[in-house]
Amino acid sequence: MTMIWDGQTFPEFKQNCSSLLSRYLSKDLFNNLKNKKTLHGFTLFQAINSGVVNQDSHIGVYAGDAESYDLFSPLLNPIIDEYHGFSLASTHTSDFNSSAPSVPNPDPNGQYILSTRIRVGRNIDGMPLGPAINRDQRIEVESRIARTLDSLSGDLSGTYFPLLGMDEIVQNRLISDHFLFKNGDRFLEAVGLNRDWPEGRGIFHNQQKTFLVWVNEEDQLRIISMQKGGDISAVFNRLIRAVKKLEETLPFLFHSRLGYLSSCPTNLGTAMRASVHIQLLKLGSKKSEFEDIADRYSLQIRGIHGEHSESEGGVFDVSNRKRLGITEIEAIRDLYDGVVALIKKEATL
Ligand code: ADP
Ligand code: DAR
């Protein structure tokens, strides 16, 4: 699905391309925006190249910095509206500082849910995002984050492991055990997120691997809380504590209308993805019924190794799809209600 594009003429989208980019980039819009660039030098070409050369993209567009969301807003706003159901009249509020929701464990007997993981994306205020950051800035971001992580105590204390020089066997083991990000894919490659890889990238985790931080993958931080089983509240509580501690010394990039900013417009607002690995041996093979429930509860279904992967042994990665225009607790509620509905359906089959 990869094609070559000269970046100067209006891109051609194949008949079967269904990306939001292909739907909202008109010729006029392309001509109006093609010579604009942000203060960090990020251009429309850079913003849309991934969606042009990867015609199987769902979204197809990225931001290089906070300014991208304003400079390219004639293209980004309709895409954000459609993906999140978030119009110009919508507002985003966060309730991340309140105590965790009292959602009970949807699978107290551990029959279906193997593990729960909740992550938020964050980026450093005053720095470009991954697609526009330069090598020195990326290394500065890594060292600032590593210093803050090193100061953590109690159950959040742990060790930072740079990817540069990491033993390949250790790296592959961390990836297959669902702790570490995979090496950048073609979507990230086409927007420049894999530049200078693996320099400046790494993973922090505590002893138990229940608190982890990815550094300089798609976002400058992916702050992760995870554990076996379905105790969503315990996982969420740990994440709230960790994010509060990190933001004592790290200024996170925040937009008054769009909430926390990320290089990908799917990760705005809460920038939170709360997921369970859940085994649905019967429902998993009934695609339309599975997808009906997922749509009804705004759930996203991924494979067992995350995005662009397949399910294995009837295990699926089920998470909230919407991240913007809802609060963190509403997103958790989306997941809880959806998982209860999936388990109920599975039990009747
Ligand atoms: P992200 O969640 O950061 O958007 P991915 O979807 O690629 O990124 O998932 C990243 C990693 O997290 C993958 O290895 C995936 O298997 C793992 N993962 C996601 N959800 C869970 C979960 N509930 N339990 C265990 N691992 C998970
Ligand atoms: N692959 C790109 C991004 C989709 C959202 N996933 C992220 N950001 N990891 C696409 O447009 O399909």
3D architecture notes:
The structure is a single chain. The chain is of the alpha+beta class. The protein has helices spanning 20-24, 27-33, 44-53, 68-71, 73-84, 135-150, 168-176, 186-189, 232-246, 287-296, 328-348; strands spanning 113-122, 158-162, 202-206, 211-215, 221-228, 254-255, 259-260, 272-279, 299-302, 315-320. It folds into three domains: 20-84, ATP:guanido phosphotransferase, N-terminal domain (Transferase Creatine Kinase, Chain A, domain 1, Orthogonal Bundle); 116-269, Glutamine synthetase/guanido kinase, catalytic domain (Creatine Kinase, Chain A, domain 2, 2-Layer Sandwich); 274-349. It contains eleven helices and ten strands. The strands form two sheets. Strands 2-3-4-5-1-8-10-9 form an eight-stranded antiparallel beta sheet. The model has no long low-confidence stretch (mean pLDDT 95). The structure holds adenosine-5'-diphosphate (ADP) and D-arginine (DAR).
Keyword list:
eight-stranded antiparallel sheet; 10 strands; binds D-arginine; 3 domains; Transferase Creatine Kinase, Chain A, domain 1; alpha+beta; 349 residues; binds adenosine-5'-diphosphate; Creatine Kinase, Chain A, domain 2
Q: What compounds sit in this structure?
A: adenosine-5'-diphosphate, D-arginine
Q: Give the name of the CATH architecture of the largest domain.
A: 2-Layer Sandwich
Low-pLDDT regions: none
CATH topology of the largest domain: Creatine Kinase, Chain A, domain 2
Helix content: 25-40%
Write down how many β-strands occur, each being a DSSP E stretch of 2 or more residues: 10
Biggest sheet, strands in spatial order?
A: 2-3-4-5-1-8-10-9
Radius of gyration: 20 Å
Average pLDDT for all residues: 95
Describe the sheet with the most strands.
8 strands, antiparallel
Query: What is the CATH superfamily of the largest domain?
Result: Glutamine synthetase/guanido kinase, catalytic domain
Q: Give the domain tally.
A: 3
Order of helices and strands: HHHHHEHEHHEEEHEEEHEEH
CATH class of the largest domain: Alpha Beta
Structural class: alpha+beta
Distance between the termini: 38 Å
**How many helices does DSSP assign?**
11
Beta strand %: 15-25%
The dominant shape is globular
